[in-house]
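Quick review question:
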C-alpha cells in the first residue's frame, strides 16, 4: 500500500492450526499484510494454501491460533460491523423465500435503518447492479449471474468499509464473469470501498487488482506482494491484450508455480 495511506485492514502474524480427531493441520503460519483504505487487493495461491481460512479469520467467523487482525483500528474478535462478504455460493447465500428487494434489505433492517432510508439504499444498490426491474422477483427466478449481482447489491447497500469476496465468480460462465469483474471495478471506483478479492484465476487477479498477494503453499506466508500498475481505466479487450498485462500475468503465474513447488520467501 502507499506510504502514508490510512490502513483499513491490518493482518499481523496471523497463524491458524486446525486441531481435532487426534491430528493437527498447520494451515496458516505467519501472514502479515496491510490494506489501505479504498484499495482493491487480490489474493491468489495454490489450492489448499489457506485462502478461505484467511478470509474466515478476517470475517471474524474463525479464531486464529496466533497473530492479530485489525479493521479500522479495532481488533476483529467476531463478525465486524463494517464488513460485508460475498461468497462463491450465491445459491446458498440468498434466501429463496424472500424477494430480491427483501434480500438486499435484510442487513439494513439489522442495522436499524428506517423504512425510507432502507428503500432508497436498496433502490440505489439494485440500480447500480442493473437489477432494479427485478426487485420483486425471487432469487430462483434469476440466472446465476443475476443472483450473484443480488449478493453484490446486498453487500454494497450495507455500505461496508471492507468488502471481502471469496471466489465470487467461480460458478458463473465466462461472459458473465467478465461483466461481473467490470461491475466490481465500477462499484469500487464509485463507492471508494476497500476490497479484498480471493480468486483462483490469475488473469482475473491482475485485471481487477491494484495489488496481488501471492500466497505460498501450506503453512502459508506471503510469497510476494505484486503491484499492478495498470491504468485505472481497465477494459476487458484492450487491457487484457496489452504487453503490460501479459508481463504481470506471467509474473504472477510464475510465482504461483513456484509456490506450488514449495518455494518460500527467504
Ligand atoms: N476445518 C478444518 N479442519 C482441518 N483442516 C482444515 C479445515 N479447514 C481447512 N483445513 C485445511 O487447511 C488448509 C487450508 O484450507 P483452505 O480451505 O483455507 O485453503 P484454500 O486456499 O481456500 O483452498 P482452495 O483454493 O482449494 O479453496 C488445507 O490443507 C485444508 O485441508
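Suggested answer, residue by residue:
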Amino acid at each position: 500500500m502507499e506510504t502514508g495511506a490510512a490502513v483499513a485492514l491490518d493482518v499481523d502474524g496471523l497463524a491458524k492450526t486446525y486441531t481435532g480427531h487426534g491430528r493437527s493441520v498447520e494451515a496458516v503460519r505467519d501472514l502479515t499484510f496491510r490494506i489501505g483504505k479504498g484499495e482493491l487487493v487480490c489474493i491468489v495461491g495454490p489450492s489448499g494454501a489457506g485462502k478461505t481460512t484467511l478470509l474466515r479469520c478476517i470475517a471474524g467467523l474463525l479464531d486464529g491460533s496466533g497473530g492479530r487482525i485489525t479493521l479500522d483500528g479495532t481488533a476483529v474478535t467476531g463478525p465486524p460491523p463494517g464488513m460485508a462478504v460475498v461468497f462463491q455460493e450465491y445459491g446458498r447465500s440468498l434466501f429463496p423465500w424472500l424477494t430480491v428487494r427483501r434480500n438486499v434489505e435484510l442487513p439494513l433492517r439489522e442495522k436499524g435503518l428506517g423504512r425510507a432510508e432502507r428503500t432508497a439504499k436498496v433502490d440505489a444498490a439494485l440500480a447500480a447492479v442493473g437489477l432494479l426491474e427485478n426487485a420483486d422477483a425471487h432469487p430462483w427466478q434469476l440466472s446465476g449471474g443475476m443472483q450473484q449481482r443480488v449478493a453484490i447489491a446486498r453487500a454494497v447497500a450495507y455500505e461496508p468499509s471492507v468488502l471481502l469476496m471469496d471466489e465470487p465468480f467461480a460458478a458463473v460462465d465466462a461472459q458473465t464473469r467478465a461483466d461481473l469483474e467490470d461491475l466490481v471495478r465500477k462499484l469500487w471506483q464509485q463507492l471508494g470501498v476497500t476490497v479484498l478479492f480471493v480468486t483462483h484465476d490469475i488473469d482475473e487477479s491482475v485485471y481487477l487488482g491494484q495489488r496481488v498477494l501471492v500466497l505460498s503453499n501450506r503453512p502459508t506466508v506471503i510469497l510476494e506482494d505484486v503491484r499492478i500498475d495498470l491504468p485505472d481505466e481497465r477494459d476487458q479487450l484492450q487491457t487484457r491484450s496489452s504487453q503490460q498485462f501479459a508481463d504481470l500475468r506471467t509474473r504472477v503465474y510464475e510465482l504461483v508455480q513456484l509456490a506450488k513447488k514449495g518455494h518460500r520467501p527467504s
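Why it works: The pocket of adenosine-5'-triphosphate is lined by residues 18, 25, 27, 45, 47-53, 218 (CB under 6 Å). Residues 18 and 151 are 30 Å apart (CA to CA).
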